[in-house]
Design goal:
The chain is 62% helix and 0% strand. The protein has 305 residues and is mainly alpha-helical. It is elongated, with a radius of gyration of 30 Å. About 6% of the residues have low confidence.
């Protein structure tokens, strides 16, 4: 198909040229097959008098079916390249593709891709930040039902980090002075009683500290789990989080976790942008100025309007 004579014939007949599969490019296999289906009339024309181009109707049916399967993966891959992709959106697209491919049980390619996604899922959801961020997204919280324990533990840990609460307090605030155990009293029973009192005081202090640190976040998590999921998928997760109905304690946690990049696409896009700014014409630009320009470009909200 890519011989000069055939390419010239396709150009004369107004057809697009065929594409090749390239391992280094995402979706290149789908694009190649999609272009092949587009060129079916030209191929049928070339097959007249040339058996090398003969493709049976059954093979065309299989090619179209393969295109349909790869199209779903291609669309998902494209959506995962979006600039403002959040963890919840990522997991939703992942789950939707797996569900779609799992329904096509008669297709070997679908079953293979779905099986690889299951294997990859076990590694993917070991990332507790991804799990917790999706859990705090009311639209897709249900997708984390099998990982709720890990999600809640990560949310509580993030809460403590954001509140600058140290797990180990200083000796002066965490442990009472037990020097009275070394009392000059010679009565052993009195010493034991004093030590028991110290242990009781330590328990009371620890319980008060734990109640003070953990109760608010655990209470918020329990109330959040009781809320009905949000069915409106048009609003972004940040619009939902900033709504007054969202828990005020969970809000800064959800904002922090949802802002973390899910894929490397945003980083690659930033590198490409840097090559446009830091060009040969501006090679003497100072690093702080380059950084400032990149921050402005990366956060230019006018591009999303």
């Amino acid at each position: 198909m890519r011989r000069p004579k055939i390419m010239s014939s396709l150009d004369n007949d107004g057809y697009n040229r065929p594409k090749l599969d390239m391992e280094t490019r995402w979706g290149s296999t789908y694009k190649m097959i999609d272009r092949l289906c587009e060129l079916q009339p030209a191929i049928d024309k070339l097959a007249v008098g040339n058996d090398d181009f003969m493709v049976s109707e059954e093979n065309w049916r299989k090619i179209r079916h393969l295109k349909e399967v790869l199209s779903a993966a291609f669309v998902t891959t494209t959506r995962l390249e979006e600039e403002h992709l959040t963890p919840g959106d990522f997991v939703r697209e992942w789950a939707a593709l797996h569900h779609l491919l799992s329904t096509k049980t008669t297709c070997v390619v679908s079953s293979t891709i779905a099986g690889e996604m299951v294997r990859r899922k076990n590694l993917l959801f070991n990332n507790r930040i991804l799990v917790a961020a999706t859990f705090l997204d009311p639209r897709y919280r249900i997708l984390m039902k099998d990982y709720s324990s890990e999600a809640k533990a990560t949310v509580a840990n993030t809460y403590r980090r954001l509140q600058n609460i140290e797990e180990c307090e200083t000796d002066s605030t965490m442990s009472p002075d037990i020097s009275i155990v070394n009392s000059s009293s010679s009565d052993e029973q009195e010493t034991r009683d004093n030590f028991d009192s110290i242990l009781h005081q330590m328990e009371m202090t620890e319980n008060e500290r734990s109640h003070k640190m953990e109760s608010p976040i655990h209470h918020s998590i329990r109330n959040y789990e009781k809320q009905k999921p949000i069915r409106n998928k048009q609003n972004s997760v940040f619009e939902i989080i900033n709504d007054e109905k969202y828990d005020t304690i969970l809000r800064p946690i959800a904002q922090t976790l949802s802002a973390l990049p899910v894929t490397q696409v945003s980083c690659e896009r930033l590198f490409s942008l840097m090559t446009l700014i830091f060009s040969d014409w501006r090679s003497h630009m100072k690093p702080d100025l380059l950084q400032a320009i990149l921050i402005i470009k990366a956060n230019d909200l006018s591009k999303t309007d």
